[in-house]
Design goal:
heterodimer, A: about 325 residues, mainly alpha, MetI-like fold, about 75% helix, about 0% strand, B: about 525 residues, alpha+beta, 7-stranded mixed sheet, 17 helices, 22 strands, about 30% helix
């Protein structure tokens, strides 16, 4: 327990320089990109003279030499003031709060479906390696993995929303559904079924293969031979002993994929018209919106740091042999 | 006494026959029977502009939503004379130094306050003239707006201003804001730039960022009996495939501005539930233009520029890139602008042999590898069609020995590269012809524009003869004399070829057959939809 706390403290302290480097990096990323926020905006206005552009630059605070702007930018961040988004004319904190929940619901569920189904099917496939069941499960998962996520999403949409009309076509909620309470929860859940499935089924194969390989490795190990010799039921050996060891690579992979929790679903979000977090990053870059981009990137950085910390702590629990 | 000047009645693109003739698909949705009140129209929105105020930003994505809430002084019609909205009639003085607008009485803003001439004066002097991107051009010489009474506004100019120009600008550049909500505030931070208040047939209800805009019927609209719809919802759908799906299932009833990919149009029309409509955008003509950097030695030679024009097959662009939903351009003004288009202009037909002969004559022979010289070509990234046009132009120029290397940028990078840094040799641009050459067309040809102004002459082209014609037309009061000067402008543009107009295109709407009165004016998608109704 004491060791875990030391780890947590160490990680949180390490996070500070990481965040600082990221923040300064984002500033220069926007600064060095060709064109600024006004240049990007002018494309949609269709025209405007020099005075029009100058007034906008002054209004948006992007006029003037970069050292002064870098200074005020860092000062704002230190006081936790995320500022106003140029691309959306809203406070960055509002935008992030609105959208981060949508995306996390989508990606965490998607990851859950992928890891959950992948684990179960991996165990099932490894129980009888080389059988028809094994070939079928592995084959289907591979096909789904090889197909681009948006294509799986579009196919699912065509079948379930257009042809059968069982599930909603787009968005995170329906216009005429209740906006609060249990009704709202059910409405949002209905809208998330297809995108979560599209996301989850695409990544399922990774977890299935990891689990299957881990199970096969465990099957050849001494402790399993002992358990069989002791006369334990096969199913108990499968889940209680083999799976518990084979799952460690799966947990590692979840940690690795956590970095895509906030951004990796942009394509699915676009296809299903879900106002998501990944889209914010895309808009921030194309619109050269510094305040929005740094807010988005810092959120992503913090999330990755936290998730990896959680994964490391989880190892200690899952496998007492590992020293945290 | 002011003498009224007869405004040109020839204007406004009566029946865009030429555009329509190119398409083989069913067009107009005719009104069936008597309009029925009720129903909510759900349409696709693919952009969410940062500033929804049409008086400050006169752009199509803003008008799409805002024109239902905030009205201009008059609206465009197919027949010619603008339809009076907040202004019931107008007269210009003989010397062109003033225009008197008679305003509609009994109109209220959505918050109950009355609309008066003070709102027009405020909007013109404090917003259109100093702040609006195109208003700064059109109302450049506006010095004052007199308001002798609540329903009269007299625009006074410091130099003769063509009434024809002001009339052509009425539909898009004269959105009236409520003075009582804006005067004395910081306009850029005013909350009503998002929470719009106007005099229009629909009230602004809510905006859920990333999801939808919702408008509701204005029961106190001045045109009694209108609007028919109970409300409009603009659903934010960023993916074109999902727009097609949504139309097919009836989830939305309308997609405008070619939001539906052109390749899907046939399939959607074949469902029997939807109409593909190319009418209704005649006053918003987009152009594909080959922008030329005259700072490059090779491009300074007129023969080289002529060769470029002969080398490019405009009808190939129309057929292959635009699938027929466009027409070849002949000069800077589209043929649908009947007021101004010069029908006597000789065209540069597709003639690669002539192009090669001109290039040889100019002294740029093919090298050992077949290349005469290399150019950097920057296609505008914001339309798929402009990118594809860039691909085709590269191909066409390669065939005559010019190696045009494509350089790709995103929107901000492109604007900076072409209009700021002039780091290009050729570019594919997408200017818009907005009903009058003086609004956004002549600025592509006039010399002396400061560096960095987008969608203007950043090409290093400076011709005193061209400047003289443009400046004279800007102050010519008589409409037919003015139209005549613009014909001379076109002739000079075709002779000197500072830029090469390739294609004029407009947009396609896809509407459910239940939507009535679609496309019944030349800027339909950006107008108020006061008479749109849903058949059951």
């Amino acid at each position: 327990m004491h060791r875990s706390l030391i780890l947590v403290r160490r990680r949180l302290l390490q996070a500070i320089p990481v965040l600082a480097v990221v923040a300064i990096g984002v500033f220069f990323l926007i600064e060095l990109a060709p064109g600024d926020a006004v240049d990007a905006y002018m494309a949609s206005t269709g025209g405007g003279d020099a005075a029009f552009a100058l007034r906008l630059r002054q209004e948006w605070g992007i006029e003037g030499a970069w050292p002064a702007r870098l200074g005020s930018y860092l000062l704002n961040l230190l006081t936790l003031n995320l500022g106003q988004s140029l691309a959306f004319s809203q406070p960055v904190s509002h935008l992030i709060a609105d959208r981060i929940l949508n995306t996390l619901m989508l990606t965490v569920s998607g990851l859950g479906v992928a890891a959950g189904l992948g684990t179960i099917f991996g165990v099932a496939a490894a129980a009888r390696p080389g059988s028809i069941r094994d070939l079928l499960l592995t084959g289907v998962a591979l096909v789904l993995n090889a197909t681009p996520g948006f294509f799986v999403g579009l196919l699912a949409l065509l079948l379930f929303s257009v042809k059968l009309a069982w599930l909603p076509l787009n968005g995170i909620s329906s216009l005429d559904a209740p906006q609060e309470g249990l009704g709202h929860v059910f409405d949002v859940a209905r809208h998330l079924i297809l995108p979560v499935l599209a996301l989850g089924l695409t990544y399922m194969a990774i977890y299935q293969r990891l689990m299957r390989a881990g199970m096969l490795r465990a099957a050849a190990s001494d402790y399993v031979r002992t358990a069989r010799a002791k006369g334990l039921a096969p199913r108990r050996i499968l889940w209680r002993h083999m799976a518990r060891n084979a799952i460690l690579p799966v947990v590692t992979m979840i940690g690795v994929q956590s970095s895509s929790l906030l951004g990796g679903s942009v394509v699915i979000e676009t296809v299903f018209a879900i106002p998501g977090f990944g889209r914010l990053a895309y808009e921030a870059v194309t619109q050269r919106d510094l305040t929005l981009l740094v807010g988005v990137v810092l959120c992503g950085t913090i999330l990755v740091i936290l998730v990896n910390l959680a994964i490391d702590l989880l190892y200690g629990y899952l496998d007492p042999r590992i020293e945290v | 006494m002011l003498q009224s000047i007869p405004f040109s009645r020839r204007g406004f693109l009566a029946g865009s026959a030429s555009l329509v003739a190119l398409t083989a698909l069913p067009q107009l949705v005719c009104a069936q029977g008597t309009p029925r009140a009720g129903g909510t129209l759900v349409v696709a929105a693919d952009t969410e502009p940062r500033n929804l105020n049409p008086a400050m930003v006169a752009s199509n994505d803003v008008f799409y939503v805002a024109s239902k809430v905030i009205e201009p002084l008059a609206e465009a019609t197919f027949e010619g004379p603008p339809r009076p909205l907040l202004a019931t009639s107008w007269e210009g003085s003989a010397d062109g130094m003033s225009i008197t607008f008679n305003l509609r009485k009994g109109v209220k803003f959505h918050d109950g306050q009355p609309f008066t001439s003070a709102d027009v004066a405020f909007s013109a002097m404090e917003v259109w003239k100093p702040l609006q991107n195109f208003g700064r051009i059109v109302f450049k010489n506006l010095t004052a707006v007199d308001t002798p009474d609540d329903s009269t506004a007299i625009f006074r100019f410091s130099a003769p201003t063509p009434p024809q120009l002001i009339e052509n600008a009425l539909p898009s550049l004269t959105s009236v804001l409520p003075k009582h909500l804006y005067a004395g505030t910081d306009f850029d931070k005013n909350p009503h730039n998002a929470d719009l208040i106007g005099t229009g047939p629909f009230r602004f209800v809510e905006y859920k960022q990333g999801q939808y805009y919702r408008l509701a019927k204005n029961p106190d609209y001045w045109d009694s009996g209108h609007p028919y719809l109970d409300g409009i919802v603009f659903k934010v759908l960023p993916d074109p495939a999902s727009i097609s799906n949504a139309l097919e299932t009836g989830d939305i009833q309308l997609a405008a501005f070619s939001a539906v990919p052109m390749t899907d149009l046939d399939r959607l029309a074949a469902t029997g539930k939807l109409d593909v409509i190319s009418k209704g955008y005649e006053a918003i003509t987009y152009q594909i233009v080959l922008e030329i950097n005259h700072r490059r030695k090779e491009l300074q030679d007129l023969r080289v520029r002529q060769a470029l024009d002969y080398a490019i097959d405009k009808s190939f662009l129309v057929k292959t890139v635009f699938l027929g939903y466009a027409q070849p351009a002949n000069g800077p003004i589209p043929v649908t602008a009947k007021e101004f288009y010069d029908t006597n202009l000789a065209a540069y037909d597709f003639d690669p042999k002539k192009a090669e002969a001109l290039l040889d004559e100019a002294g740029y022979k093919r090298g050992a590898d077949g290349t005469r010289f290399q150019l950097k070509l920057l296609p505008a990234p914001w339309f798929a069609e402009s990118r594809q046009s860039g691909d085709y132009v590269r191909q066409a120029l390669k065939a005559v020995g010019i190696d045009a290397q494509i350089v790709n940028n995103d929107a901000g990078g492109h604007i900076k590269a072409v209009y700021g840094d002039h780091a290009f040799d050729l570019a594919i641009g997408t200017p818009v012809y907005r009903n009058d050459p003086a609004i956004s067309t002549t600025i592509l040809f006039r010399g002396g524009v400061p560096a960095g102004v987008p969608f203007s002459n950043q090409y290093g082209f400076d011709d005193p003869a061209m400047d003289a014609i443009i400046d004279k037309a800007a102050v010519t009061i008589d409409s037919s004399a003015r139209a005549d000067l613009y014909r001379q402008f076109q002739e000079l543009a075709m002779k000197e070829l500072p830029i090469i107009n390739l294609v004029n295109f407009s947009f396609i709407s896809v509407a459910n057959k239940s939507v009535q009165n679609v496309a019944n004016n030349p800027r339909w998608a950006t107008t108020s939809w006061y008479d749109t109704w849903l058949a059951s």
